[in-house]
Amino acid sequence: MASALDYCHSKHVLHRDIKPENLLIDINGRIKIGDFGWAVHTPANRRQTLCGTLDYLPPEMIEGKDHDHNVDIWALGVLLYEFLTGRPPFESPNQQETYKKIVNIDLKYPSYISEGARDLIRKLLVKEPKKRLHLSQIPEHPWIVKHTVVVVIVAPEQLPVVPEQQPTDKN
């Protein structure tokens, strides 16, 4: 996800609605980002529109401030928390309470969330947008490294040719 968003941001595209429903997995297990309905191409990299899904909104949007690509980094923190716990971190009975929890970064970690996962979430869910972990640093985070399995897919034509062994007569 971090690499895909980094690519979008390099093209000045902000997604602004990262959430589980907008992620797709292809037949090879690769993640694809879908639903660019709230996305915007913004070479100036600054926007003011309040948009997206309530539980994933960053503090700067709620407070009516300009926002940039860092909104997608915030959403990755919310997404990670939700994937690990089954619910969004700031979920509340009503919209105003959710807004308040987001702005105050008021979240509780269940005891089963490891310190490594908490550290990554804390580095993504930072109120000051420019202080959030950069997308290029996410794959290098110790918790990600520890839990990543690297799979190399090689096309059959790229496999080395192994000479056939001649049968040996052991009689």
Class of secondary structure makeup: mainly alpha
Number of helices: 6
By CATH, the topology is Transferase(Phosphotransferase), domain 1
Widest sheet: strand order? 1-4
Number of domains: 1
The CATH class turns out to be Mainly Alpha
Helical content stands at 25-40%
Q: How would you explain this protein's 3D organization?
A:
It is a single chain. With 171 residues, the chain is mainly α. The mean pLDDT is 85. The protein has helices at 2-10, 59-62, 70-85, 95-103, 115-124, 142-146; strands at residues 13-14, 23-25, 31-33, 40-41.
Write the topology of this structure.
Layout: H1 2-10, E1 13-14, E2 23-25, E3 31-33, E4 40-41, H2 59-62, H3 70-85, H4 95-103, H5 115-124, H6 142-146
Antiparallel strand pairs: 1-4, 2-3
Helix pairs in contact: 3-5
